Amino acid sequence: MPPDGGVEPKGVVLSLPGLTGSKEDFTLVHGPLTARGYRSVAVDGRGQYESDGPLDDESAYARAELARDVLAQAEALRAPHGADVPLHLVGHSLGGQIARAAVLEDHSPFRSLTLVSSGPARISVSQEQRVKLLRDALSRMTMAECWEAVLAMGPPEEVGGPARGIGGQEHLRRRWLGTSPAQLLATGRQLCVEPDLVTELAAVPLPFHVLSGAHDDTWPVPDLDVMAVRLNAHRTVVAGAEHSPAVDRPGPTAQALADFWDGLQPRPTGNAGTTATAAGPLTQYTR
């Protein structure tokens, strides 16, 4: 969505969804962000929902491949505006780890990186068990059969199925059936073995923002607090939100994002490689 008419354009936002998510997970933050002057764009990753991808070739979803997709998307978004328009990268959960890989590959297109409910390394043991159950089911059943099995056990988001999103169960079903099983298998495996790359990320000259809900069992909130300190990052904890703050509390989430970007010092023109300074590390608890 472009910035609202009459609002000074401040930059562009590129948002990446999580493992079983989609671009629609950011629907409720688009409006508040455009009202603050930010063009807000969310994408389905390769093989997610409405983006094409191989159904049975896991190598197409290697982390490096997905990172290169993000860099290509960044180039496409910057082209109409010019290099001086700030581009802010946001990644939720798996999307945060893909965003991290893209920034480690080439940080120059981006003005900042926000990691939303996305931790320093592999997911928690309880979530790893759920991902392994999902991968085991996908190795034996079709996507449609998996969906029916998930429904038989309870609400999808509570039994290891698709994450809760916007649009109700019918949207979840369409999103699930539109996603490549190879994408889920490959990226699910990545979440279970992801190394700690916080030290490497901290060496990148970008401002960082670590945002999460007050409760999260995918990466424990204290681990996200420590990661923020290691990154010298701005830290936001959204009260009343869990693993998906943009869905659970979109208003406070959008406000925290825009406040962080508004607080960044302007980057010197034509010197994209210099260290960018954030507003300073801060733990912000929203209500």
Strand content: 5-15%
CATH level 3 topology: Rossmann fold
CATH class assignment: Alpha Beta
Structural class: alpha/beta
The value of Rg in angstroms is 18 Å
Quick tags:
287 residues; seven-stranded parallel β-sheet; Rossmann fold; alpha/beta; 7 strands; 11 helices; 42% helix
What does this structure look like?
The chain is α/β, with parallel strands linked by helices. 42% of the residues lie in helices and 13% in strands. It has helices at 27-35, 63-78, 94-105, 125-140, 143-153, 168-178, 181-193, 198-202, 221-231, 245-248, 250-262, and strands spanning 11-16, 38-42, 87-92, 112-116, 208-213, 234-238, 283-286. It has a seven-stranded parallel sheet, sandwiched between helices. β5, α9 (221-231) and β6 form a beta-alpha-beta unit. α1 crosses α11 (250-262) and α2 crosses α3. The chain starts with 10 loop residues before the first strand and ends with a strand. Mean pLDDT is 89; it is low at 156-160 and 269-279.
Concise overview:
The protein is of the alpha/beta class. It has helices at 27-35, 63-78, 94-105, 125-140, 143-153, 168-178, 181-193, 198-202, 221-231, 245-248, 250-262; strands at residues 11-16, 38-42, 87-92, 112-116, 208-213, 234-238, 283-286.
Give the SSE map.
Elements lengths: L10 E6 L10 H9 L2 E5 L20 H16 L8 E6 L1 H12 L6 E5 L8 H16 L2 H11 L14 H11 L2 H13 L4 H5 L5 E6 L7 H11 L2 E5 L6 H4 L1 H13 L20 E4 L1
Parallel strand pairs: 1-2, 1-3, 3-4, 4-5, 5-6, 6-7
Helix pairs in contact: 1-11, 2-3, 4-7
